[in-house]
Amino acid sequence: xxxxxxxxxxKAKLRLALCGPSGSGKTYSALKIAKGMGGKIALIxxxxxxxxxxxxxxxxxVAEIAPPFSVDKYIGAIKEAEAAGYDxxxxxxxxxxxxxxxxxxxEVNKRGGKNxxxxxWRAATPLHDQFIDTIxxxxxxxxxxxxxxxxxxxxxxxxxxxxxxxKGMEPVQRAGLEYEFTVVLDMDNERHTATSGKDRTRLFDxxxxxxxxxxxxxxxxxxGMGIEQQPQYYQVPxxxxxxxxxxxxxxxxxxxxxxxxxxxxxxxCYTAAGWDVSGLVDYLQKRxxxxxxQLTVEECHLLYTEFYGYAQKKQGGGQ
Length: 319
Hints:
Order of helices and strands: EHEEHEHHHEEEEHEEHHH
Helix content: 25-40%
Distance between the termini: 31 Å
Structural class: alpha/beta
CATH topology of the largest domain: Rossmann fold
Shape: globular
Strand content: 15-25%
Mean pLDDT: 84
Number of helices: 9
């Protein structure tokens, strides 16, 4: 079979982000949408217990996270939600893992020293990437809320009087993160309405609406369209690293790890990057909290892609 195949629509898991200033209705809307989607709901609460204020809306379970808001806590809670059989996970909010005590920016400051870029971000970027990868590769639907930087604009009210109106701006998270999601809804602080900042479903383009259970129903109908099939990722021919150059001679690579896919390629790239393969299992256990045999195909592909890039750099083929 060649590298390219006929495009087919596959069923998908929701990756939804609700962005807005405080009081715009992010948590309330997330729960209403989850109710419409149906299934067992879990909520990660970083807002001092405010996530339990809406328990009259729908049944859901809560895991509260207190400072420090390290990504390890989030990742652990996500994995627990998956293992417990929840269908939908709401993370309220994602911004704490970025800007609050113990978050990514805090880690940069702690580890940066005199050279924040080299030392701080070199340590913090992999942590953040691991966190976002855990969300994107989750086996369940994920809805996140993100605070937005606020600003005031002068608008005219119904009587023509100029009044200041609080507006949401960029999410409090790494720049460009919103593009990782299937749908991004920007919440208005005054009317609690939503408009789509990004929408791969094309369900909400040009609309201004109040999110409710019907929003969840529409999303589930869209997500359920298509076939049940794992993606078939393109693989570089065996033995080739970089632009058709053979991998340098390395120690023999055992084939006993049980990866569901890409085992040969993962191990070959890992050793080509100059690492001792005996440390791979410990690395995977710390990163995914699971042995190789329990990884998903998507996770295997992610590892292969990462190790392939490191191998290229080792051989002078990377940037």
